[in-house]
Amino acid sequence: MNTDKHNLIKRLFPTTLLTPDELEQKYPERTLPLNAMVTRVAPSPTGFVHFGSIYASLISERLAHQSDGLFILRIEDTDKKREVAGTADLFAETLKRYGIIADEGLIEPGKEVGNYGPYKQSERASIYHSYIKHLLEKGDAYPCFATPEDLEALRARQEAMGERSGYYGHFALWREKSIEEAMAALDAGLQPVIRLKSPGNFQTKIMVDDILIGKREMPENDQDIVIMKTDGLPTYHFAHAVDDHLMRTTHVIRGNEWFPSLPLHLQLFAVLGWTAPAYAHLAPIQKMEDGKKRKLSKRKDPEANIEYYRQAGYLEEAIIEYLLNLANSNFEDWRRANPAADYRDFPLSLKKLANSNGPLFDLAKLNDISKDIISRLDAKTVTERALAWAKEHDVKLFELMNKDRAYTEAIFNIERSGVPKPRKDIGRFEEVRNEISYFFEETFVLSDEDLKTAIADLNGAEPKALVSDFMAVYDEKDSPEVWFEKFKEVAARHGFAKSPSDYKTNPDKFRGQAGTAAKFLRVLLTGRTQTPNLCYVMQVMGKERVMKRIERI
User: How far is CA 77 from CA 46, 47, 87, 107, in A?
Assistant: First the structure.
């Protein structure tokens, strides 16, 4: 390297930096089992946590851990103009909440672990500078002092000529500038970006091999991309290559919006003298709109924000199982065959993700999964988790349930324990208020109109007498079968058929079916026409509360 070039590089990087060889020693190859995968998720802290980011994170974490490998959370915070304060910690907190456990990186807000850090790109500037300096020394990079006006004029000229837009070949304004011209620009106080001196030819086709998309022929990159901005921080393209190499990433699993950049990224690894990791580009989660599929949108869809599910009160387990269902269609069959197993026992397969046009978002399916999971929880757990959600999102409901936890737990236990098919009435905790409000005097509502309608359905039977006769034989210890037999006997004395078949055979003989009379009692006690088994509801309410409500007639 001649003296002039040495002086230019010294001007660009005046501080002492580790050499590439020293960095290789500082970040050695990992000692892991054969075929163990090292994966990472690398969010940019520029806003809320996207549902799709949790999807990609879960896939990366599962593949790493089921292969006895490592999963890394790295923060790509080099775009300081778009960074939103606190969102890096939000991402770490969100992964932890959903049980997507990173082995290295920002494992929780304010806590970074691992020997291959720092794990925030803004704190790794000196590492990037080492490799950029190395590329400058080899002639594989150069300083570029083109102004925004220069670049705009270049685009206009290319458009007028019918040429591809971009900074390449003879359109790369500073590619062949002399060292003297660069030094003069520095003397004039100009701040350069550093660009890759691409060795590619756009006319040359290269074969790329993606785990999910397969083999594709693509044009070789010939763009002299920016690898370091004027603020001294790298672009994503360059930083991800350095980080994935030094952190010994084996598989990069990311959204397929990055697939067109794959030739560039493979070129960067080649220029730096490294073996590239395997790439797997995920198709985005999609949504139906007007009969057509589109990507789940940050701008249009509230459910794109992972906080939407927390506020609605979805179980974290439900979100995870739904995402596994999106990733591998056989997860549903596996869950059916293994209802009590930990989802981590499911063998997630990259092959099942291959050739997908993108999983279709289905909120109804998520609700079904969530209802199924909640139905398998015991009443104490449901109570604790409903209280935890309400304390943060519905304070009045929390106060209502918390004043008598034993009563609340008994409510949630209705048709839950010891039954072959537990009820599935709650899919998210924001539904709890509606499902249990009639158990509490403060929130019990029985309108005069509903009561009149229910009385009218008795077809002339005396409501007070009907209820009084039933309460005279009512026993809180009765099973639902005994309860209903007693009710049918009382209803028969008031002109109701004991069975639907009796009523169907001779409808003129009866006021209606016994079930119609039971419906009146249900409305009277709950203000609803549909509830869990009324025998259980009355048992949980207790005879004193039941009698107070009966007094309304």
Answer: 8, 12, 10, 16
